[in-house]
Every structure is written in C-alpha cells, then in structure tokens.
Automatic annotation (TrEMBL), chain A:
It comes from Protea cynaroides. Belongs to the Mo25 family. SUPFAM superfamilies: ARM repeat. GO terms for biological process: intracellular signal transduction. Signal peptide: none annotated. GO terms for molecular function: protein serine/threonine kinase activator activity. It comes from the Eukaryota. Pfam families: Mo25 (PF08569). This is MO25-like protein At5g47540. InterPro entries: ARM-like, ARM-type_fold, Mo25.
UniProtKB/TrEMBL annotation, chain B:
Residues 388-399 have a biased composition (Basic and acidic residues). Residues 13-272 form the Protein kinase domain. InterPro entries: Kinase-like_dom_sf, Prot_kinase_dom, Protein_kinase_ATP_BS, STRAD_A/B-like. ATP binds at K42. This is Protein kinase domain-containing protein. Keywords: ATP-binding, Nucleotide-binding.
C-alpha cells in the first residue's frame, strides 16, 4: 500500500516552491487552528533543513552543482528571499539558523556564471534596510547580521549600504552592550570599509568630513576599551591601504587627528598603543608635514623620543623596530620652521 | 514566548569564588542579582589576546545561538573594561575530570559511564548537525549540574580560547590534548573531521572507565607518536566491562575515520541501552561530592604536594611534571616548531597533510599559553566549517594555500600514511636543527629512524 502513495523524490525546485508556499502561509497570519499551524511550521523546518543540506552537503555527500543551481534559480525567480527575511522572526531558533545559512550560501551560487543573488538584491534594496535594522533587535541581530555580511560581498550592494543613512547607525551598533551583537556589527562595519577598495575610496572621499568626525569622537575617543581597540586597528587598515592614499594624506595633515593619536599612544593598553603607533608613524613619516603638525611634534619632541626609547613590542618584530627607528629619526631631525 | 534576558553590565552581578582558571580566562561562581540566580561567569582578558579578536566573537556567537539540553550555552556576554564577561549556567558538579580526580581516581561504574556518554553523544550529535565540531571532547569538558544534567562545554576554538579548569587541568589540557587527538587529525581534508570528535569521544570513554586517558603519563611528543604508531588503545582487560562497552569503544577508536560511526548512528549502540536518567547521576555521583570550590581548592593543594617531591626524585617525568613556567616554555616551542615544519614543507604537495595538523596543534597551544600567538598566525580557518573557511581565507595567504594544498592532498590515496610520515619527518628534521632534550631525542630517534629511511628513499624516487 505504502508504495502506492509514495511520492516521487522532490526536486530542489519543488522544495523551494513548497517552502515559499509555507512562508506565504506563515506571513499571512491567518486564523488557522493551532495544531494545523504547528504542522505547517514543522514542515517548514524540515524543508529549510533540506535546502541547507542541498547547498552545503551533509555527512554523507558533497553538494551537487546542478542541484544548487536549480535551487538558486527557483529561489530568486520569485520573492522567496523577501519572504524568508520577513518571516524569520516567526521561525524557531533552529530554523532561523538554517534559513540564515541558506541565504548566506545563495549569495555565492552562480547560475550561468552570474551571481543572480546580486541582481535580485539590486532590485530589492529595501531588504537591506531591513537587515541593517536587525541590529536593533537582539533576537534577530545575529541572523540578519550574518545575512547582511554575505550580501555586501556584492559590490553594488555594499555601495548601497555605504551611501545610505545606515552608515551612521553603525557607530552606535558597534557599541551595543551585548558583545556578540556589537562584535557582529563591527565585523560588518569593517567589511563595508575594507572589502571593495574602489567603492570604499570613493565613499571616504565624498563623506570625509562627517565620517572621520564621527569616527574620532564616537569610536577613537569612546569610553569602551574594545571600541577604541577595534577602531584604531581598522583605522590603520584603512589608511595603510594603497587605494586610500589620498584619504590618508588628508587624515595625517590634521592636528586634531594627531592629538587623538598621541592620546591613544599613552593608553595603558599595550595592544592599543601598538595599533596607535601604526597610525602615528604616518604623521611622522609624511614628507610634506603641514606647519601645525611640525610644531606639535617639535613641542613634544623630548617627550616623544623618551617614550619611543622604552616602547617595544612583546615579541620581536623587525618591521616594528624599523618603523620606530624611522619615526625617531624623523622627529629628531625636525626643526621649528618659523623660529630662526 | 518571551526569552529571559540576562542583564549586560557587571553591576548586575556579584562575583563569588573562582571555580576555574586558565591562562587568559577564569571562571567564577556569581549571583545574577535581578534574577536572584547563581550563574557561572567566564572572564577573559582581551589584553592577553593580541591576535584577531574576531575568533573570540565568533565563538561567543555560536555559544549564544545553541539551544540543546546537553550543550552549554552562553546566556549573554558583555565587555567590562578590558575583560569579556560570558554569563553561563552554573554547573555545580564541575567537570568529570574534577569528579574523577576528587572521588574516582580509578574510574566510574559502567552504568554511570553509559549515562554520561549517552548525554554527551546527544549534545555532540546536535553540534555536528549544526555544522560545528567540538574538537575537544574529554572529561574535563563534560560538565554536570546539581540535578545531574550533563552538558558539553567549551566547544569549537573556544575550547582553547575559553579554557577553563584549574592549573592542574591546564597542564592536562596540554599534555592531555594529544591523548585525545585522533590519528587522522594529521591528514583530514578539512583539518578536523566530525569523525575526529568520535575518536576523542572513545578516548573519553576510556578516561571515564580508568580514571585517566591512555598515554596520559607520557610527554606530549611521545603521545603523538604513540597515537600514530600503536594499535588503538582499549579498555583495561583486567577489569570487568561488558562486551557491548568494549565494542562501543572499539568502534570509536578505529584509525581510519571513515570506519568510525557518526554520532547519530553511534547513539543507537546497544551499550547505551543501560543509560539512566539525570536523576541517577544526581543520586549516585553528585550527592556525596563536596562543593565545587572546595574540590578545586583541594585539587590544587594535592597537586602542589605532589609536585615538589616528584621534581627531585623522578627525572623521567621532567617534561610533563615540571612547574608552571617550564610547562609554558614547553608549550611555546611547540607551535614554532610545527610552524617551521609547515613552511619547510610548503612547496611539495605532500607537505599538505602535516599542515592541517600543524594548524590545529599550534592553535590548541597558542591560546593556552596566550603569549606566543602572533597576529599573522591566524590558524583556525582550515579547521572550521566550509562557510567560515571561505570567508576567512580571503585575505589570509596561509589559509588559502593551506586549503588549496589540502584540495590536492585529497586526491592522494595514501593521505594518512603520508601525513604520518610528514610529522615524523618534521620531528626528525627539527631535532636535527636543535637539541630539545636528550630524552626526547632518544625516543624519537629510535622510533623514527626506520621511517626516515623510507621517506628519504621515496623522496629520491619522486624526484
């Protein structure tokens, strides 16, 4: 008897279609009986897990490219991604995690050597607004955050987020009290500011004033140790990137920036001091130091030289020692310009 | 369903006594004031981690997203000064390592073991289904609360990041971790396969049955070699254990990982039919135990007493039994050594296999000592899930080369075999460069000389 009713094995596209139907049901919130609803939720949980194992493989088998392509195509043919994102808060924790992994994986799936996820997102940019605001909901933050980080692998999507008003919110998100959420937000922030070089350089050039004003006051001068430590590290990464050299020149020509960096050099945390040094050295090594930078360095010359004499990394680091020697040489050779 | 939200601020907690200590983290019993609930708080010093902090945050995220009765979760975590506080459920019974040391030095009864392992396996199966590897299954990471509920703690890289336990345990982690390590950890495509956890699980079964892990009295280098060369360890024949127990252990401790059962299949083994309830553990094990704080204090004192005479009388034990500082220096040369072997073998694709091993070994040790990690030596990626591996490897030369090299290695049929040779080769070549200790050298040389000849001849052939 059983074999009579046994359905044919469902194709990946079938699975996506069924998932979509169930999501529509979940989303519509109709007044169905509780047991019926639970049955459907259980079915949805199973489907999401199946989708995940098609994309990632399981302990028995590796993923099959053809199946992944079918799944991806069907997924983006209609609004399944939107439904998943909207319905996520209504799913169980395990389903949320599965759904997040599915969405993350889909961002890398190519169909006919095109990333169709990118095309879909470009046509549905409001979804990104939803994902970013997820950081305000502690239950959703890690799921939406993980999805968001995958989405900004697409350059056009990263550009959208960078240029949106959301960028300003990140300065608060990365200081949220929950460490797991805050660190997720700072991982996304870092990704946005380092991944797509040309986009980042364009963004920083255009938004230099407000961005670094916020960066200095909210992050580098934060009362939170971890915020300062991560911010100074990221600042070093950004300024030392060759594609950002114009921005770096602008940054190291400001005496306010120099003051902040000198404060960070005096921190009690060794890790912050070291990272601060990697930015400070740019001020000193700049061959066209503006007079105001020179005069600050000259005024503090003795203190700085004394400081650098005892300033060492815990482990031997040749690059650091070479940089330090260079900085010391530069500072020692400085002459006050207008007093003669 | 409203989730219980634990407050994120140190002012909401009162810290009590320390119940565990590692190099960069310690664990305290504490009161969560608004809930009037006892919790455990792991306090980790960021300043002692000069590497990438993203590893810590990823592990904390995983810990806060698990929901299974047999896996320890993080209630919440927050930054306090330059410390990270991770609030977790308080497990009043401590770890089974503590329990073994304090009350059952010769091992537990079989029914108790079956009950413990059954719970552990449920947790392990959950983690595996989630795509997480535990990587550090051992009695020291099996925790039990006052009601006998058993949870697997410290999973993932956090095994080392959030290393808990007293100093006694810490040394055991270093000496001990090799004891729990599967032979193919050397050669797996993904660094650590799920099946490696099953090997560790089998070793843990032996640990619970005997009171200590096999080879645990040997120095780490020797343990590596013994794991590779000896037949898999088994249950003590002189003691009465059931056939199904012996079979279960033998199933786990098969050298070829593909012949080991997955967690979800192992759980059906007849050995676990005798498993009892949490309540049984509470009645038989937990009841008679002194409080965790006292257990740890006592263990510390015991250890201090044991150490002093041993040091003088027993020269043979030098490597594993010296005081804290020496253990550290031991630790610190190990990863460098593995590291150098990695670089040396980089260009030949046979070097691949030792690479993944090197990564996992150095990682384990790196975080334990907390002082030898260098920012560029971010070593976890080859061992993690596929997804995170991809994300991480993007800007990390080492990981990229390691994964591509590992891909090539996958094609090799004699992968494991070669891997063993590699590690052996690295051992010998390192020993050629530097004299570590006469003892080690003699052990390694005698064991290796044959292998080395084989390897050399093979090299010639391949050229």
């Amino acid at each position: 008897m059983k074999s009579l009713f046994k359905s044919k094995p469902r194709t990946p596209a079938d699975l996506v279609r069924q998932t979509r139907e169930l999501l529509i049901f979940v989303d519509s919130n109709s007044n169905t009986r509780e047991d019926k609803r639970q049955e459907k939720m259980a079915e949805l949980t199973k489907l999401l897990r199946e989708l995940k194992s098609i994309l990632y493989g399981n302990s028995e088998s590796e993923p099959v490219a053809e199946a992944c392509a079918q799944l991806t195509q069907e997924f983006f043919r209609e609004n399944t991604l939107r439904l998943v994102i909207i319905c996520l808060p209504k799913l169980s924790l395990e389903s949320r995690k599965d759904a997040t992994q599915v969405v993350a994986n889909l961002q890398r799936q190519q169909v006919h050597s095109r990333l169709i996820a990118s095309d879909y997102l470009e046509a549905n940019k409001d979804l990104l607004d939803l994902l970013v605001s997820g950081y305000e909901d502690p239950d959703m933050a890690l799921h939406y955050g993980a999805m968001l980080r995958e989405c900004i692998r697409h350059q056009s999507i990263a550009r959208y987020v960078l240029e949106s008003d959301h960028m300003k919110k990140f300065f608060d998100y990365i200081q949220l009290p929950n460490f797991d959420i805050a660190s997720d937000a700072s991982a996304t922030f870092k990704e946005l500011l380092t991944r797509h070089k040309s986009t980042v350089a364009a963004f920083l050039t255009k938004n230099y004033d407000w961005f670094f004003a916020e960066y200095n006051s909210k992050l580098l001068e934060s009362t939170n140790y971890l915020t300062r430590r991560q911010a100074i590290k990221l600042l070093g990464d950004m300024l030392l990137d060759r594609s950002n050299s114009a921005i770096m020149m602008r940054y190291v020509s400001s005496k306010d920036n120099l003051r902040i960096l000198m404060t960070l050099l005096r921190e009690s945390s060794k890790n912050i001091q070291i990272e601060a040094f990697h930015v400070f050295k740019l001020f000193a090594a700049n061959q066209n130091k503006p007079p105001e930078i020179v005069s600050i360095l000259v005024a503090n010359r003795d203190k700085l030289l004394r400081f650098f004499r005892d300033f060492k990394t815990e482990k031997e680091d040749e690059q650091f020692d070479a940089d330090k020697a260079q900085v010391v040489k530069e500072i020692a050779a400085l002459e006050p310009r207008d007093r003669s | 369903m409203e989730k219980k939200r634990y407050p994120t601020g140190s002012e909401h907690y009162v810290l009590y006594e320390e119940i565990g200590q590692g190099v960069s983290a310690s664990v305290c019993r504490a009161l969560c004031i608004p809930f009037n609930e006892i919790v455990a708080i792991k306090i980790l010093d960021f300043e002692k981690h000069d590497t990438d902090l993203s590893k810590i945050s990823r592990e904390v995220q995983t810990m806060s997203l698990v929901e299974h009765p047999n896996v320890l979760k993080a209630h919440c975590c927050f930054v306090n000064g330059h410390y990270l506080w991770v609030v977790m459920p308080f497990m009043a019974g401590g770890s089974f390592l503590h329990i073994l040391k304090a009350a059952y030095p010769n091992g537990l009864e079989e029914v108790v073991i079956a009950t413990i392992l059954h719970e552990v396996l449920k947790g392990l199966d959950y983690l595996h289904q989630q795509g997480h590897l535990h990587r550090d299954v051992k009695a020291g990471n099996i925790l039990v609360d006052a009601h006998g509920a058993i949870k697997l703690g410290d999973f993932g890289v956090s095994a080392s990041v959030f290393d808990s336990g007293d100093k006694q345990r810490m040394r055991n982690t270093f000496v001990g971790t090799p004891c729990w390590m599967a032979p193919e950890v050397v050669g797996q495509l993904h660094g650590y396969d799920f099946k490696a956890d099953i090997w560790s699980f089998g070793i843990t079964a032996l640990e619970l049955a005997h009171g200590h892990a096999p080879f645990s009295k040997y120095p780490p280098m020797k343990v590596f070699l013994m794991t590779l060369q000896n037949a898999p360890p088994g249950l003590d024949r002189e003691r009465k254990f059931s056939k199904s127990f012996k079979r279960m252990v033998a199933n786990c401790l098969v050298k070829n990982p593909s012949n080991r059962p997955a967690a979800k299949n192992l759980i059906k083994h007849s050995f676990f039919r005798q498993a009892r309830s949490n309540d049984y553990i509470a009645r038989t094990i937990i009841k008679g135990l002194p409080s965790l704080g006292n257990v740890i204090k006592e263990l510390k004192m015991k250890e201090a007493n044991m150490l002093a005479p041993k040091k003088i009388s027993d020269g043979q034990e030098e490597i594993s039994q010296v005081e804290e500082k020496k253990v550290h220096s031991q630790i610190s040369w190990l990863p460098k050594f593995w590291g150098s072997s990695v670089r040396r073998d980089f260009d030949g694709d046979s070097g691949s296999s030792s690479l993944s091993f090197a990564f996992s070994a150095s990682m384990e040790v790196q975080f334990l000592s907390g002082e030898i990690s260098s920012p560029r030596d971010r070593s976890s990626s080859p061992c993690r899930s596929r997804k995170s591996r991809e994300t991480e490897s993007r800007d990390e030369k080492e990981s990229i080369s390691s994964s591509t090299i590992m891909e090539t290695a996958a094609k090799s049929v004699h992968l494991c075999h070669q891997a063993w040779k590699q590690i052996i080769y690295s051992l010998t070549s390192y020993l050629r460069d530097k004299i570590v200790s006469r003892l080690l050298q003699s052990i390694v040389m005698t064991l290796m000389i044959k292998q080395r000849h084989q390897l050399c001849s093979k090299d010639v052939v391949s050229r």
